[in-house]
Amino acid sequence: MGLVSDADGALTALASTCKLAEMRRKGDILKGNVIISTHISPSSPVIPHEPVPFMGSPVSMETMNREEVNPAMDAILSVDTTKGNRVINHKDFAISPTVKDGYILRVSEDLLDIMKIVTGRLPAVFPITTQDIIPCGNNIYHLNSIMQPATATHSPVWWEWP
Questions:
Q1: Is the pTM of this model over 0.85?
Q2: Which of 13, 35, 36, 128 gives 20 to 30 Å between its CA and that of 73?
């Protein structure tokens, strides 16, 4: 029926899957395994949130984490869109600091380098707070739900926002 702005994360996951399949077909095989997971919902509820409403999910965040976070994941790059906020809102993508075991760590130098190479510009990094890495559903402000995988794994989690 259409594609909402919140679909950017799922679209990025699907495009990454296609790219990895193409690379493999051409003999460019990565060391190790890459696990890509996402969800697509044709009927997501709209949830009131300031400054703009969130797209909700017909299943709970706990269910999402159980289905999308695989214990075999050594690290998680979580992709989502947050266009309706005042923290960072620009055309391009940005990365977050690394989150591991409830700690917000420094920004990955490797991700900063990759972002600079890919864009040809200085990397964009946005701040996150402890509120962003605790479970949703407790009436505490979250920039969005993108850091929620950090509540379901001991692996490091980064956020990339297309």
A1: no
A2: 128
Concatenate the DSSP letters of all residues of the chain into one string: ----GGGHHHHHHHHHHHHHHHHHHTT-PPSS---------SSPPEE--SSSPEE--SS-HHHHHHHH--TT-S-EEEE----S-SS---SS-EE---EETTEE-PPPHHHHHHHHHHHSSPPPB----GGGGS-SSSS---S-STTGGGGS-SS-EEEEE-
- Best CA proximity match to 64, nearest among 161, 159, 162, 147: 147
Q: What is the tens place of the pLDDT at every residue in 107-156? A: 999 999 998 998 999 998 888 888 888 887 777 777 777 788 888 888 88
Note the pLDDT of residue 25.
96
CB 23 within 8 A of CB 29: yes
Task: Read off the tokens for 133.
Answer: 């890495």
